[in-house]
Amino acid sequence: MSATTSSVVGNLQHSLSVERASEFTEEDLHALCEAADAAIIDGGGFGWVNPPGRMALERYFRGVLLVPERELFLARLDGIIVGSAQLVRPPRNNEAQAFTATLMHSFIAPYARGFGLARRLTLRVEEAARALGYQVLNLDVRETQEAAIALYEGLGYIRWGVHPAYARVGGRTIRGIHYFKLLQPGGRIA
Ligand SMILES: CC(C)(COP(=O)(O)OP(=O)(O)OC[C@H]1O[C@@H](n2cnc3c(N)ncnc32)[C@H](O)[C@@H]1OP(=O)(O)O)[C@@H](O)C(=O)NCCC(=O)NCCS
User: Which superkingdom does the taxonomy of this entry point to (predicted)?
Assistant: First the structure.
């Protein structure tokens, strides 16, 4: 299910929507790979530093839909997929952390930023995690991802730690910032 709203940017009205993916049309997969490619080239790819090529991206996203612990959420601008995020549940053996989930690999293509799609995507993932009974949502970002830091801190994520050797990009070691958010009403752990 996706709820569509509209947003006026400049003089133009745009439709914005976010949905959970269960399968891809060829057109949707093409648009998703295009968006991922553009985000990676821009420097904010989800782990990738260099674009891995269209075939690898297609295999990657088809694979995500097959992983039982992962749910893929898609953002659309005027009906076209321009970004995604993943809700990752803990594996079944991790009983001690069965109340926590992780938001990973969130991105919006550079050509679709500033419309409020990442905020909607994040809130949709939170809603899905909450509906599944999770009480804590974890996430982490590179310290260079300033837009993401503003996004998550604006949505109430609590910064709890800094990883000094989180990522390597262009031969440089980059720190990572770790966040969590309590999902249930009143921010309590039941
Ligand atoms: C971070 C990212 C997802 C934001 O996407 P977006 O759709 O443009 O974000 P939104 O339009 O929903 O903006 C929501 C909030 O994010 C923050 N934000 C977004 N872009 C920003 C920017 N360029 N600079 C500072 N803050 C920014 C703001 O707080 C904004 O709220 P506001 O509009 O009320 O000021 C996008 O820039 C991106 O894909 N970056 C590269 C990948 C990445 O960092 N992913 C997240 C970590 S895995």
Answer: Bacteria
- Tell which atom from ligand 1 comes closest to the C-alpha of 108: 39
Sole residue written with tokens 């990973």: 104
The atom of ligand 1 lying closest to the CA of 43 is 41
Q: What is the CATH number of the domain that holds 53?
A: 3.40.630.30
Residues with CB under 6 A from ligand 1: 39, 44, 46, 106-108, 113-119, 141, 145-148, 150-151, 154
Residue 95 sits in which domain range? 3-187
Domain total of the chain: 1
Task: Tell me if the pTM is above 0.90.
Answer: yes
Print pLDDT tens along the chain (190 aa): 456 787 766 667 899 999 999 999 999 999 999 999 999 999 876 788 999 999 999 999 999 999 999 999 999 999 999 999 999 999 999 999 999 999 999 999 999 999 999 999 999 999 999 999 999 999 999 999 999 999 999 999 999 999 999 999 989 999 999 999 999 887 777 7
